[in-house]
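To fix ideas, we give here one paired sequence and structure record:
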Amino acid sequence: MTTLPTLSPILVAEAVRLALAEDLGRAGDITSMATVPADAEASAVIAARKPGTIAGLALAEAAFAALDPTIRFAASVADGDTVPAGATIATIFGSARAILSAERTALNFLGHLSGIATATRAMADVVAHTKARITCTRKTTPGLRALEKYAVRCGGGSNHRYGLDDAILIKDNHVAIVGGVGEAIRRARAATGHLVKVEAEVDTLDQLREALGAGADAVLLDNMAPAMLRQAVAIAGGKAVLEASGGITLETVAAVAETGVDFISSGAITHSAPVLDLGLDFTAA
């Protein structure tokens, strides 16, 4: 059974509160207040102007509800659904002022997260014939990490660690300071509990052997060509989870996946994903 991604309502409410406060500033939406009667009601439609995978509907709904809880927001699709250009994403009815004032915040969240889901889905589809899974990194927008990682899951990807506090990843700079990948792993093992996973980054096969010998749970194979990745898979022999990383693109990801690695991490799916073009248009009364 496939587990659908979930997003904490607490995270949604806080993100929306901060975004609306930033946009409404000290005086509110002075344009809408000056031009639209306070009692005017209207209906609007959010539609996809380009095809993509949707993520962030809860944030869009919360943006409208925060300005007027009586607004009716009816989603036509669910997060994780892939839609064609022109598809209706949601319909909204209620206070015209509130809809206008929340419009940009709702679309910012929905477009940004849907863009991440779309980029992730594109990579996930390309490697679907292999066992490899696409995973994200910590290369996220400050303050939006949990939301962006949720969008990755909506796109069929998986999540790497959320921060520096939930798993150990020994990077090349740690190794440079300590003096060796094996020594760094041994220190990590001695300092952490049995539930904390230890991953080490390596860029040579000798370092891989050293990491395996020291008992790494996972090894990040950094910037290795497919031929070297195949050798790494053979050397590991299932003793550790293998993650390929470094310069992964939609054009190269299939060749990387076909080497037999378990995960392929991409920073681009969060830090460089184009926003999915969505629009809100008012409909005739």
Observations:
- The first strand starts at residue 41 and ends at 48.
- The domain at 125-271 is CATH 3.20.20.70 (TIM Barrel).
